């Protein structure tokens, strides 16, 4: 799943390194000006447990950049060295911070996604999908979604082009909930599912005949579960998603046998950061 994006990641890493050193690395140049460049190994170590995903992608991208991966931790939980890469000293020093920043970001996502996924699985909710959202750092959406998916999450929409999700902003701008839904139904391609965001039972049942999925947004946990079961009873094919302020600490309060999807924006935008550091030897 991940390896097909090797060239894309290599291009992004190269671009980010150039952004960080548009006219070179003046510190490294000054320190090593009269010293012959030699090969070294850079170890990136996890000081806390991380959930590694897409190791082949990371290995391939580093190789495409002219670096020589010595070790990439296999997919799964690990602590200690996660990446060892060989290269010229100046190259490693120039790449160090950019590579660290990227790995901290994507492994923080994969680690938190996995924690939530394992919590739900161990609590009897293996059929509830954990979905990430469009709340991603600009320019990082592909990597956030890819690493989340590899850790066990559903990507939800990859972009605005994927499906029709009518949110409160659309409804407020249109001026009428049912009118907005009917307009979307009339004008949408048959290839696009329609989901609508609601905040009450009344709104949910108003749109139920016209949509494929309903998002119960910022509805309290007990109310959300109650509405979800009533919706399933009325229309068994409806997909019920709950969202809004949900995290690993409270996710179990929001799920039952009637909830299909729980979406959490923090997973890709602000997950707890894993502790990674780099050493060159």
TrEMBL record:
SUPFAM superfamilies in the cross-refs: Nicotinate/Quinolinate PRTase C-terminal domain-like, Nicotinate/Quinolinate PRTase N-terminal domain-like
Family to which the UniProt record says this protein belongs: Belongs to the NadC/ModD family.
Keywords attached to this entry: Glycosyltransferase, Pyridine nucleotide biosynthesis, Transferase
Gene3D superfamilies: Aldolase class I, Quinolinate phosphoribosyl transferase, N-terminal domain
Sample GO molecular function, one term: nicotinate-nucleotide diphosphorylase (carboxylating) activity
Pfam families: QRPTase_C
Pathway: Cofactor biosynthesis; NAD(+) biosynthesis; nicotinate D-ribonucleotide from quinolinate: step 1/1
Every Quinolinate phosphoribosyl transferase C-terminal domain range: 109-277
Catalytic activity: nicotinate beta-D-ribonucleotide + CO2 + diphosphate = quinolinate + 5-phospho-alpha-D-ribose 1-diphosphate + 2 H(+)
InterPro entries with a match to the protein in the record: Aldolase_TIM, NadC, NadC/ModD, Nicotinate_pribotase-like_C, Quinolinate_PRibosylTase_N_sf, Quinolinate_PRibosylTrfase_C
Species this protein is from: Ignicoccus hospitalis (strain KIN4/I / DSM 18386 / JCM 14125)
GO terms (BP aspect): NAD+ biosynthetic process; quinolinate catabolic process
Functional note: Involved in the catabolism of quinolinic acid (QA).
Quaternary structure annotation from Swiss-Prot or TrEMBL: Hexamer formed by 3 homodimers.
Source organism, top-level taxon: Archaea
GO cellular component: cytoplasm
Protein name per the record: Nicotinate-nucleotide pyrophosphorylase [carboxylating]
EC numbers for this chain: 2.4.2.19
């Amino acid at each position: 799943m991940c390896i097909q994006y090797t060239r894309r990641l290599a291009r992004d890493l190269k671009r980010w390194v150039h952004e960080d050193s548009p006219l070179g690395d003046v510190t490294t140049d000054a320190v090593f000006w009269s010293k012959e460049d030699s090969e070294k190994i850079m170890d990136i170590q996890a000081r806390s447990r991380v959930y590694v995903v897409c190791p082949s992608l990371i290995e391939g991208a580093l190789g495409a950049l002219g670096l020589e991966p010595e070790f990439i931790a296999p997919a799964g939980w690990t602590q200690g060295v996660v990446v060892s890469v060989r290269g010229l000293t100046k190259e490693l020093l120039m790449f160090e911070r950019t590579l660290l920043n990227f790995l901290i970001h994507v492994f923080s996502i994969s680690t938190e996604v996995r924690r939530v996924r394992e919590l739900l699985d161990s609590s009897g909710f293996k059929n509830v999908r954990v979905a990430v959202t469009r709340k991603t750092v600009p320019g990082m959406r592909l990597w956030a979604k890819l690493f989340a998916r590899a850790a066990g999450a559903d990507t939800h929409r990859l972009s605005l082009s994927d499906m029709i999700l009518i949110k409160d902003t659309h409804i407020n701008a249109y001026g009428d909930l049912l009118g907005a839904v009917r307009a979307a139904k009339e004008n949408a391609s048959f290839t696009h599912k329609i989901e609508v965001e609601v905040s009450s039972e009344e709104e949910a049942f108003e749109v139920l005949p016209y949509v494929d999925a309903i998002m119960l947004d910022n509805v309290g946990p007990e109310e959300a579960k109650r509405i979800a079961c009533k919706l399933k009873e009325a229309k068994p094919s409806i997909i019920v998603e709950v969202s809004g302020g949900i995290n690993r600490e409270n996710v179990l309060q929001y799920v039952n046998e009637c909830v299909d999807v729980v979406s959490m924006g923090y997973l890709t935008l602000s997950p707890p950061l894993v502790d990674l550091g780099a050493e060159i030897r």
